Amino acid sequence: MNTPKLKRLAQDRFLKGSALIFIAVVLANLFNYLYQITMGRLLTIDEFGEVNAIISFITIFSLPLGALTNYFAHETSTYLAQDHLTSVKNLHRTGLRKTLWVALVISLGILLLSPLIANYLEVSVGKIIFIIPIFLTTALAATNTGIIQGLQNFFKLSKLNIYASGLKLVLSVILVLIGWKIYGALGGLALSLLLSLVYSQLIINRELPRSKDILEIRFSQIYGYIGALFFANAFFVIMTQADLILVRHSFPPESTGLFASASVLGKAVLIVPATLVITLFPMVASNRAVGISSADMLVKALILTLALSGCGALVLFFFSEIIITLMFSKRYLGAAEVCAIYGLGMMPMAAVYVLMNFLLAQKKTSCVLFLGIAVIFELAGISLFGKDLMTVLLILFCTGCLALLPMVGHIFLIYKGKQN
């Protein structure tokens, strides 16, 4: 098959895969939002803010896992393009061992730092220690997700996402209703992750051929790329999660709960890019392995992101009071003004996420520098000037623009250089 036909095939698969993943992510995020809404109604405003602050901290401690997921997705896609499925099986087996060791080291760090973290978030040490089993399960699940994503089996990946989100909702509601409160909200998350890990392992066992060979992963040869993946994911997560933690630290508990509700709704604009990169990243990696350009795929991903996420942000802007009341009840109406602006403030970050993953899939790591500068700006800005919630949102918007503009310029120079 010649190159133009291969390009058309890849683009068709990108749109079809993205459509399938989008439907699944919408359903999964429906369960996730029902989880947030239900917890917001069953818990007090203070408890709800506490749960979201702890979940944000779990997300930050899970930073290395995003790098490992992307690495396994990239390598699996490369092996898939070269028709080496036995190598994928060996990669998976060895990868689980390496991931478990990394997760245990980080879990030890969480345990040692638990008193300081608990004091910073103003929660009990027991709730922080509860993060450890959640993190360990998330680590192994992240490895499996990377393999499935790299195999480009988007149907089974979609089922896995829906399964995990639905279980989290059902189990958390049951545990909260029987009186576990905050521990119930976190316990439902832990149990859903464990069951999802089992399911993902079954998927991989059926997809890959049996092999007893052990693939030696020499991290000394690939640490640069894994490091870039780690820092890129770390910086992006900090960009999108640090606001809630800083608000929790600096504002009264009720303000934190109101800001958390606005954050849950405003960050919905990230659903579209999060969906698209699930298909974009492995396909760009496969194209790179066989020498095919992915520029058209990037353009389509950006158009879909700006159009769909932009529509969502505008709906939130014009109907924030109605949406807040329907989703969380009238108790949260104080968050309506912040909620109206939050979605628009996140739009630059939505585009950043697409460009970041496109560059990383091609092993272009310059985006790490741009993201790092943006993170420093956000943390310093909110800490020094975030005296009210609207100022915090303005800083978030400026942070996204600061990361976005140099990425656009860098990609333009890359393709201009190739044309010349």
Task: List the topology elements.
Elements: H1 3-42, H2 45-61, H3 63-81, H4 85-121, H5 125-129, H6 131-150, H7 154-180, H8 182-207, H9 219-250, H10 253-266, H11 271-290, H12 295-318, H13 320-328, H14 336-345, H15 347-361, H16 367-385, H17 389-419
Helix pairs in contact: 1-7, 1-11, 2-9, 2-10, 3-4, 3-6, 3-9, 3-11, 4-6, 6-8, 7-8, 9-15, 9-16, 9-17, 10-14, 11-12, 11-15, 12-14, 12-15, 14-17, 15-17, 16-17
Key terms:
single chain; 420 residues; mainly alpha; 17 helices; 87% helix
Descriptive notes:
The chain has 17 helices and no strands. It is 87% helix and 0% strand. With 420 residues, the chain is mostly helical. It has helices at 3-42, 45-61, 63-81, 85-121, 125-129, 131-150, 154-180, 182-207, 219-250, 253-266, 271-290, 295-318, 320-328, 336-345, 347-361, 367-385, 389-419. It is globular. The model has no long low-confidence stretch (mean pLDDT 84). Helix 1 runs antiparallel to helix 11 (271-290) and helix 11 runs antiparallel to helix 12.
What structural class is derived from the secondary structure elements?
mainly alpha
Topology as a string of helices (H) and strands (E): HHHHHHHHHHHHHHHHH
Alpha-carbon Rg, integer: 21 Å
Instruction: Estimate percent helicity.
Output: over 70%
Please count the beta strands (DSSP E, at least 2 residues each).
0
Summarize the structure.
With 420 residues, this protein is an all-alpha fold. It has helices spanning 3-42, 45-61, 63-81, 85-121, 125-129, 131-150, 154-180, 182-207, 219-250, 253-266, 271-290, 295-318, 320-328, 336-345, 347-361, 367-385, 389-419.
